[in-house]
Structure formats: structure tokens, C-alpha cells
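May I ask for whichever protein you like with its C-alpha cells?
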Amino acid sequence: MSLRNRIAFYFVAVTALSTAILFLVIYGIVHNTVYTHLNKDLEAECAEVANSIVYIEDELIFANTFEWSEQEHAQIEVNPTFIQVVDPSGKNLRKTVNLRNNNLEFHPHATRKAFYDLLVAGASVRQIQAPLRPDNGPIQGYLIVAIPFEESARVLSNLRYILLISFPTVLLFLFAVSRMIAGRIISPVNTVIATADLITRENMNERIPVPPRKDELYKLSETINRLLDRLQEAVVREKQFTADASHELRNPISVIRGTLEVLIRKQREPGHYEEKIEYVIGEVDRMAALVEQLLTLARSENGLRPMMGPVDLKLSTETALGHFRESIAEKNISVKCGFHGSDIINADAAMTGIILENLISNAVKYSCRNGIIQVQTIRGGNHIELSVTNFGHGIPQPQLNRVFDRFYRIDECRSSHLPGTGLGLAIVRRLVDLQDFSISADSSPEHGTTFRIGFPAA
């Protein structure tokens, strides 16, 4: 069953229950009103007739004979009233003329006033049977009074017929109307479905039209549009990442292939072979470093969870600096460190090591020969900020915000002899985000480039 039909069905089901209860209440009220009115008329007539009967030595005497000769007791066509008096055994003592050869129904077991519905000469009547006893003595007989019930029965029958016919009619009408209304209500959902069918990996620009009313469907459309925006950004980043990775891997492979092809064209001196082989090994190392960085990024985006714990920031920084001792010595770079006595942070030790190695590698790479690298911490309450500064040429402001993008390198670096893949700072940013740290970058030609990371103190 479609959503449209389900909405209409549930609405009609609730309406059917409510309508059935309402109809039952209406019929009950009318039924009770009709019978209450008839019973009051019967009781009034019974009381009037009973007052005309007296008891003399346990014998019933009909004192007011005019009561029995009234027109309503003689006629049978228009508003007749039937009266009959019987003894305790049911033997007829007296009855009105309009009963002719018929008798009202006697119920010997009814010792109290009781009402009945019955047929007299084929006509429906409402009857009351009341015991006759002097001053609560023994029962001397029974007074039975009846009045026609056909008009009232016809009213109740017509009411039942109308309610039974109108009930399914109303439900069918409500189902049709509610189905139409439900169709209009969920029309934005159909628009969502139609738009979603148009969206493919090659066509991510489609967006769902937002309804004019700011209701739940408006929020749903906006939420899906934001989701599509994020998916489109992810697809674009993936395409760019794939293109950049292919480009970065294609270059060393092409260089290695070209070098090896040159070597096998003709016999050469051993020294020439050694030189080219060393060059090829360098390209292989470059590819290995690139693949390792790609794997690090892939692991960080596939459910890698940091193992948080106390980490000595000073010790981790000294360890990372030790990995670049030869590069630092080769460029005659001075490293100035400024740490506090207890720079203990709450972080993942392995991720923190990778972050520090990439920041220091970046600082060494872009520092000038005989330059300075400055690493220091600033403590403020439960917060420790680590800054890594190199005093190289700096990064132009328009490009500063893109240094954390994958494979992004400023134009000067791409055209220079500086090695790199453009993944180091992207890895730093990803690992920082995984641990909910903060990172920022400042750069100027006069003061160099500084990267700052905010850690929570342990």
C-alpha cells in the first residue's frame, strides 16, 4: 500500500470509529427519547384508569364507567388506547371496545409494573402491565394498557436505515477526499523521489525544490539538499584526489621507466649505471613515501579511532626532531625549543608523532640554509598551544587557506627543486580533526610561517 493510501486509510479508520460511536450515540438518544415518551404516556393512562377502580371486599369495582367509554378506547384507526383488566390467573374481567375479539398479552410472572412490545391484531403496540392490589395487599388483578407503536417504530427504523446507508457513504467520500488531500500533502515527497532518480555520480548538481511553507517537508528538502551538497563536495574531492594521486605517481613511474630504457639501449660505464640506479632508488623512495601517506589518509577516513591518553609533548617533539637530524645539519638550521616543565597533553601518541613529524618536515623543507626553526609551547589553563615556525619565504595570503588541501603545493614549490607530495599538511589536518584539536596557520615574508595546534592538557 502506498503512503498516500496508508494516510487515507488510517484517517478513514479513525473517522469510521468516531462516526460509528457518534451514530450509536444519536440512535441511542432517539431510541431512549421515543421509549421514554411512550412509557410516560402509558404510566399516565394506567394511573388514570387505576384511580377509577376501587376494591370492595377483595372485589374489583369499576367506579368510573365513563373512562371506558371515551373515544380513544372505542376507535382503532387514530391514536387508540387499549385497556384490559384480568384476574391473577389471566382471565379477562373487562376490556375496551377497540380490542374487539383480541386480548392484550398477559405475563403472569410479572409482579411489578413492566413494559412490553407486542403485536395486537397485526399492529405493533407498547404495553404496560401493572398489578392491582388494595393498600399493598394481595394482587387482585392486573391492569394492562397499550398504545400504538407503529409510528415510533417507523421513526426508529428509518433512523437505522439512514445511519446504515450514510455510514459507508460518508466513509467512501472521506476516503476519496483524504486520499486527494494526502496526495497534495506528499507531492513534495514525489518531487524528492523524482529528483533523486536524476542524481548520479556524473550529475550531482540536481537539487530538490524547496516548498513555500516552512513545515516538515521544507526541513526534509533542505536537509536532503545539504546532504547532496556534502556528497557533491566529497565526490569532487575524491575525483581531485584520484587525479592528483595519479599525477603524483605517474611522474616517478615515467622517470623510472625512461631511465631504465636509456640504460638498456647500449653498454655503459659501471659508474653511469650506479648513478642512474641511485636516481631510480630515490624515485622509488619517493613513491613509497607517497603511498605511505595515502595509506595514512585512507586509514584516517575509514573508522580510525584515536586512543587518547597522556602524551609528553616535549619528548614527542624531540623524537620527531631526531628523525630529521641529518636534514637539519645539512642545511645548517638552528632549532630553538621552548617548553614548560610539564607539557603533558591528552592525545593519541601515534597520531601526535605523525603530526609533529609532518610539521617539522615541512619546517625543515621550507627553511632557508642557515635558517632557524622555532618550536615552543604556551600554556593557558587546561590548554596547551604548540607552535612550529620556519623563517623561510612565507606563503602568500590567498594561498594560505589551501595549504591543508590534499596535493596542494604553492606554485613556487612545484616549479622548484623542493621535494614533496602535498599530503603532509592534509594528514596533519585530518589527524587533528580526529582528536578534536584546533590548528591554524599564519605567514608573512618578515616573520616566516607558523603553524599552531591547540591541545587539551592532561
